[in-house]
Amino acid sequence: MSYIQDVKSTVAARNAGQPEFLQAVNEVLDTIRPVIESDPAYERNAILERITEPDRQIIFRVPWTDDSGKMRVNRGFRVQFNNAIGPYKGGLRLHPSVNLSIIKFLGFEQIFKNSLTGLPIGGGKGGSDFDPKGKSDREIRAFCQSFMTELARHIGADTDVPAGDIGVGGREIGFMYGQYKRIKNLYEGVLTGKGIAYGGSLARTEATGYGLVYIVENMLNAHGKSFKGKTAVISGSGNVAIYACQKAQALGAKVVALSDSNGWIYDKNGIDLDVVRQIKEVERGRIKEYADRVKSAEYHDSGKVWQVKCDIALPCATQNEISGDDAALLIKNGVFAVGEGANMPSTPEAIEAFQKAGVLFMPAKAANAGGVSVSALEMSQNSLRLGWTFEEVDERLKGIMKGIFDKTSEAAQKYATPTDYVSGANIAGFVKVAEAMIAQGV
Ligand code: NDP
């Protein structure tokens, strides 16, 4: 049996019942084969065995009291995956679907994504199966304080620096930061995505969505195309989707669809983002309300946004949201570029279909690295005790996304095919971490 096959079998046996984690591991191991086979040092140093096993996995009870006075209990997670090139770094997800498999897949992906940014950050991820939907501000605060009461002992500005993800935005980060400060008596950059008044970075909120559009524009330009005049469909209507929509529109695209977990909207005139932001960022409402307010829009509570004809698709909601059938429909309708804003939104069947059809496909590790990049810039500003302007951070973000595109593209050309950005991103991300692991010994 080959080294890679051997490790895949061991990981599968050891992590039975963790389908998302195994999906992420298999994709990486399958695509980095040319590099692994080119140098026996990887096997001698057990790099694959080590990189697929987290440094530690912390699971804890999160008790909190709801508005009726009843005690509730959720499960909290922090997986510190790999710190070969910097402190663990990765978001916190609050969603009822959260389990160890999901946190491990996200933490594993984060190792390679963070490496691709060129910044000194390792990989980690965390969260809870708490459902923030429909909770009052007081309930959110009670949960966040309890969650941080345990998490605080495991993190630190030079150890592990969490950030937001699904269900965790500025409000949640604020409550968690306040609790960390109270417990540790330390004013340090232990979380990113903080409010501007207390150490946050300008452009962090926009960074993942903007970064996605910047790297897709780089990919399009490399093939003589651009966003200008194109029709785009975006899934989700959260942080990533909103700012991807804003930047795609700024570059001249017409975005015609957005969604949430209940349904999706189609607006033939192009999405009015001010209305979406009012519903989602201010009122914390449902995307359905858009169709009540904008006459040109339709709301659908069945099917998916992927049935809408488009040139460019940007999945920005959640994992495995584009199935093989969805990909086939997008291809039939003429899609020519896909950029993954969410983590692992395309199933393996969908990726294969896109690549076979010659669709330009930028995978999440590269495409959504803008968020963690600006998080790392937030860490730098905190260490310097300085704050940069929006324009300065945005310029750095553009440069970082261009750097990621170049590294991904070079690795694809060297080890796979020129447009196999999946292999390119995995290889470019892997090599740097593996080199650091070998240099540092066991
Ligand atoms: P938000 O919570 O702000 O928004 C998530 C959006 O996706 C919402 O519209 C939500 O709908 C929808 N959604 C979530 N889960 C599901 C589901 N199971 N089925 C259908 N729709 C769903 O999260 P973000 O925008 O921050 O994150 C979106 C994706 O981007 C995630 O995969 C995340 O890991 C990834 N990402 C985020 C980064 C960031 O900086 N925020 C950085 C890098 C990646 P509803 O409101 O109905 O739940």
Neighbour order of strands in the largest sheet: 9-8-7-6-10-11-12
Number of helices: 18
Element order, helices and strands?
A: HHHHHEEEHEHEHHEHEEHHEEHEHEHHHH
Shape: globular
- Percentage of residues in strands: 15-25%
In CATH, the architecture of the largest domain is: 3-Layer(aba) Sandwich
Number of domains: 3
Q: State the fourth-level CATH superfamily of the largest domain.
A: NAD(P)-binding Rossmann-like Domain
Q: Strand count, sense and closure of the main sheet?
A: 7 strands, mixed
What is the tally of beta strands? 12
Can you characterise this structure?
The structure is a single chain. The protein is 49% helix and 15% strand. It folds into three domains: 1-53 and 419-442, Orthogonal Bundle (Glutamate Dehydrogenase, Chain A, domain 3); 54-190, Leucine Dehydrogenase, chain A, domain 1 (Rossmann fold, 3-Layer(aba) Sandwich), CATH 3.40.50.10860; 207-357, Rossmann fold, CATH 3.40.50.720. The longest helix has 26 residues, at 390-415. It is an alpha/beta fold. The model has no long low-confidence stretch (mean pLDDT 98). The strands form two sheets. Strands 9-8-7-6-10-11-12 form a seven-stranded mixed β-sheet, sandwiched between helices. Helix 9 crosses helix 17. The protein binds NADPH dihydro-nicotinamide-adenine-dinucleotide phosphate (NDP). The site of NADPH dihydro-nicotinamide-adenine-dinucleotide phosphate has 24 residues, from helix 10.
